[in-house]
Amino acid sequence: MVAVDAGTQVTDLMVRDHACLTYGEPEELFDLTAAFARDGLASGLKVVWLSDDAPGRAVSELTRRGVTVEAAIAAGQLSAAPCEGQLLSGQAFSAEQALGWLNGELSACRAEGFPGLRVAVDMGWALRPVTGVEQLPDFEEGIAAAMAGTTMSVLCQYDRERFDPVTLASVAAFHTRSVAAATYYADAVLRICRQYAPPGIRLAGEIDYHAEEPLALALAEAIRLDGDITINMSGLSFIDAPCTRMIADAARSLAASRRVVLHCHPAIADQFALFGVADVPGLILVTADER
């Protein structure tokens, strides 16, 4: 099954975008959020990430994806916090309290002299037994109202595998954008999608010659990007010879000034070595144990 993403790319988000990000796995969530944070920091904006994981996990995921975290935190430009204490009080949620927190962040951003604010909010907390969770649509509607006339953008994150369709539909109307990873191929065995931070593509599962066409499309689009390319195969357990050769040939086709980084497990790295990738200028082969 070839899937063409019809939503907005996370790299296209602008001021006053209230975007609904749907993701299918943690790697996709962290990748898209890292791109959202990276682009905001590069524009001089303040970035806040409310994560359903511990703040340390959020920071480490941003660092792993090339976001300059330490300097941004030191300058007060970046903060990562849990939902508890910001959106939640114990196991209770109040849309009014949550909106009060958001407005407080916007006021602090202005007082600190930043030109705008980017907020990423992981809605995974709403899957737990939380009192007041029925106010989630009210919170989303309040976000849309709070953003009017501001320089704020908000990325609301929903796990499409865990949230039921009714909940997703109930909040969709309050968002101006729908965001998901551009997906070139997805079935029960294989997933090929764009990677945003660092830019490139990501493969997970098992791939053979049957998926050569979507792999060629993904590689072609990655090559058209400026700068270095990462081909993330850390979630790949098998790749056949034709697909290995295609990736190696794509790396050879790049200008010497561009770098290609291949992330994969040692057994797959050995297979790439058989195709002479060690002799490709600018190609770096990184095994999963070295990440």
Q: What does this entry show, briefly?
A:
The protein has about 290 residues and is α/β, with parallel strands linked by helices. It has helices at about 25-40, 55-65, 70-75, 95-110, 135-145, 165-170, 210-225, 240-250, 265-275, and strands spanning about 20-25, 45-50, 80, 90, 90-95, 115-120, 150-160, 175-180, 185, 190-195, 200-205, 230-240, 260-265, 285. Helices cover about 35% and strands about 25% of the residues.
Give an overview in words.
It is a single chain. With 291 residues, the chain is an alpha/beta fold. The chain folds into two domains: 170 residues, P-loop containing nucleotide triphosphate hydrolases (Rossmann fold, 3-Layer(aba) Sandwich), CATH 3.40.50.300; 105 residues, 2-Layer Sandwich (Transcription Regulator spoIIAA), CATH 3.30.750.24. It has a six-stranded parallel β-sheet, with helices on both faces. Strands 9-10-11-12-13-14 form a six-stranded mixed β-sheet, sandwiched between helices. Strand 13, helix 9 and strand 14 form a beta-alpha-beta unit. The N terminus is likely disordered.
